[in-house]
Amino acid sequence: MNKSATRLLAASAALTLLATGCSSTASSSTAPSAGTGGLTIDAAFYPLQFVAERVAGKYGTVTTLTAPGIEPHDLELSPATVRSMQSTDVVLYVGGLQPAVEDAIKATGVPSFDAADAVPLVARQTGDLSFDPHFWLDPALVAEYALAVGDQFAQLDPTHADAYKNNAADLSKQLDALDADFKTGLATCKRHDIITTHEAFGYLADAYGLHQEGLAGIDPEAEPSPARLREIKDLIAQTGATTIFTETLVSSRVADALASDAGVTTTVLNPIESVAEGTDYFSVMDQNLAALRTALDCS
């Protein structure tokens, strides 16, 4: 069954269960609602979860709808998960990226906040997407998003408005410092072309004067054509690139084969759609900066 059909079946099942009055029960990790001491927040996937946790602090409980290790583009929600969203105070999502999340928001009527209402998303047509959702790879845009999330939480829970806004301001300052580290770290490099498995790094490239070339487009499931692989091999020869960047959640099979054929290496550049245990947005972005500096021969 294709993903569209699966999504429609899940949404239909959720609507049926909602219509028959099935009640949802909060999981043991769910905090009190805004009226009794805090917010319950569903974040569509990791970067939004990270911001929500830092902004909410002790006054919110955050659940991610995309389990660690799962590619966010592939997310499908069970009817049980959709029902549980009825007790959530707000859902954070990126409109157009995960249709299953938007289906669930419509089915439940839960309050929601689209990241596109806080930060400008760049139009890049590829596959099913007409825009690039990966704004979180530009720390300056994440700083803007954090402040907007702070304002949203303050409106939903006025009792703790100052805490949310202060937490957002603190996070924004940390993100601005990370942005400064990237600007300094990538200011003097011998190369400026980054070759990636899929084009997740457009915001990062735009922010720091780099040029991204992806084997495939924004959709990580897209397979590059033989003609595209020949183009990338020629680009490697022309630019002197030494590295093809792979990812943690996407197969590196094609990239490894091309790297071997072109006589270059591969290394991970993480799009931070999910993180390993013991790491977070800041630590992974530090790893990304180190990988870029090595691959681009930055002084």
TrEMBL record:
UniProt keyword annotation of Transport present: yes
UniProt keyword Phosphoprotein, yes or no: no
GO terms, biological process: cell adhesion; metal ion transport
Signal peptide: 1-26
Keywords for the protein's UniProt record, in alphabetical order: Signal, Transport
Gene3D superfamilies according to UniProt: Nitrogenase molybdenum iron protein domain
SUPFAM superfamilies on file: Helical backbone' metal receptor
MF GO annotations: metal ion binding
Top-rank lineage group of the source organism: Bacteria
Matching Pfam families: ZnuA
InterPro entries assigned to the protein according to its UniProt record, in alphabetical order: Bact_metal-bind_prot9, Lipoprotein_PsaA-like, ZnuA-like
Family: Belongs to the bacterial solute-binding protein 9 family.
Protein name listed in UniProt: Zinc transport system substrate-binding protein
